[in-house]
Design brief:
By secondary structure, the chain is α/β, with parallel strands linked by helices. The protein has 13 helices and nine strands. The structure holds ligand G3I.
């Protein structure tokens, strides 16, 4: 009788302890990492305008930072000479203000999603250096100035490097020369001296491109240019770059005296034949059902592989809490991701922590668990 009572008391105690542990365990991403860094999501037009109620509910519950997936890019905000359209951008910034979210601006200077007129005069001739610099300054002053104090961090220059670490031969480089980067940072700083200014790129975990990025940051700093952050986009494949390469890249950039943002995190489980990790948006491959293997669902094993991969990554991020400005996912749920349409339209991809129904995935649990790692 006594033994039975003891066993009962013991199991009641275990149940009570388990319940209290469960009650204490953080259940949201932003809570799990509240002492480490903001957890961000890139949001699309439907989420900004409020027409994706489910996405917005996840955003408000789980995240404390936002990035605009497309809403602040040049072609959207400044589609024609002298014509700005701030409709969606204003809503984006208002959302950040209302919910006290660390609000990111993306992006001021890029070779994509910039209209062709930017580089030409009204007769269609290519602009010269001074005219393009004046146009760049006017754009940056207008956009950064409008959101002064409301956008905390700007991706000033995006993807200026080739994979070999040399400067990408963009129209910016061709017309202005390599100092277009310095100029863009200087203009952004003039417009909002308190904004954290970022150089943002993908594949800077790999040696050659990383060396190019390090040289760039050193050059900017030596010239007194206020670069505060390097954004490692982290559009990852299942096995590359490795968590160890992320670890080493964060260490290498932090050693330059800048913060690091993990700025566009996702994991592409679908085949990318002939290509290593890349986020080159101009890449296009032909439709082929064999390249869309998980259209009907993701096998348990692949699901677990992504979960384990995210756990290893977040253990690295947690370790580097002092070096990180934020960790931002490039989307909220799998259905939102650009990876469903790149480099082949209409595939079914599984890159994020919330599934197509807005439910948490095993990767969500491992990310929460990794918060307790250090
Ligand atoms: O808005 C139109 C819609 O009206 C039209 O029906 C539809 C048909 O294709 O296209 C829609 O525009 C698409 C837009 O995303 C919004 O979904 C564009 O075609 C598509 O090209 C565009 O892709 C964006 C891509 O940048 C373009 O450069 C992705 O959403 C966006 O996630 C992606 O983000 C980039 C970062 O800015 C920089 N780093 C890489 C990252 C991923 O590519």
């Amino acid at each position: 009788m006594l033994t039975k009572t003891l066993i009962f008391a013991q199991s009641a105690l275990i149940a009570a302890l388990a319940a209290s542990a469960a009650a204490q365990a953080p259940t949201t991403l932003k809570d799990a990492y509240k002492n480490d860094f903001p957890i961000g999501a890139a949001i699309n037009a439907a989420q900004i305008s409020g027409s994706d109620a489910r996405g917005d509910a996840i955003l408000k519950e789980q995240f404390n930072s936002i990035s605009p997936e497309n809403a602040l890019k040049w072609e959207r905000i400044h589609p024609q000479p002298g014509k700005y359209d701030f409709t969606l951008a204003d809503q984006y910034v208002a959302l950040g203000q209302e919910f006290h979210l660390f609000t990111v601006g993306h992006c001021l200077v890029w070779h994509n999603q910039v209209p062709g007129w930017v580089f030409r005069d009204d007769k269609g001739n290519l602009l010269g250096r001074e005219a393009l610099l004046a146009r760049l300054r006017e754009h940056i002053q207008t956009v950064v100035g409008r959101y002064k104090g409301k956008i905390q961090s700007w991706d000033v220059v995006n993807e200026a490097l080739n994979d070999d670490g040399t400067l990408r031969p963009s129209m910016w480089l061709k017309i202005i020369g390599p100092d277009y980067i310095e100029k863009a940072f200087a203009y952004a700083h003039e417009a909002d001296p308190a904004a954290q200014l970022t150089y943002n790129d993908y594949n800077i975990e790999f040696a050659a491109k990383q060396a190019g990025a390090i040289a760039l940051v050193k050059k900017l700093k030596a010239g007194g240019i206020p670069i505060a952050v390097v954004g490692i986009q982290a559009h990852l494949q299942p096995d590359s770059p490795t968590a160890e390469q992320e670890d080493a890249a964060i260490t290498a950039f932090a050693a330059l005296g800048v913060k690091v943002a993990i700025s566009e995190l996702d994991i592409n489980i679908l085949p990318l034949p002939g290509h290593g990790p890349t986020a080159d948006v101009t890449l296009k491959l032909a439709q082929d059902p064999a390249l869309n293997p998980y259209a009907k669902g993701l096998p348990e094993e692949a699901q677990q592989k992504i979960a384990d991969r995210y756990q290893a990554l977040f253990q690295v991020f947690a370790k580097h809490r002092a070096d990180l400005q934020r960790v931002t996912f490039w989307g909220i749920s799998d259905g939102d991701s650009w990876l469903n349409d790149w480099p082949i339209a209409g595939r079914t991809n599984y890159p994020l922590l919330f599934d197509r129904n807005g439910k948490t995935k095993p990767a969500f649990d491992t990310v929460i668990r990794a918060a307790a790692y250090n």
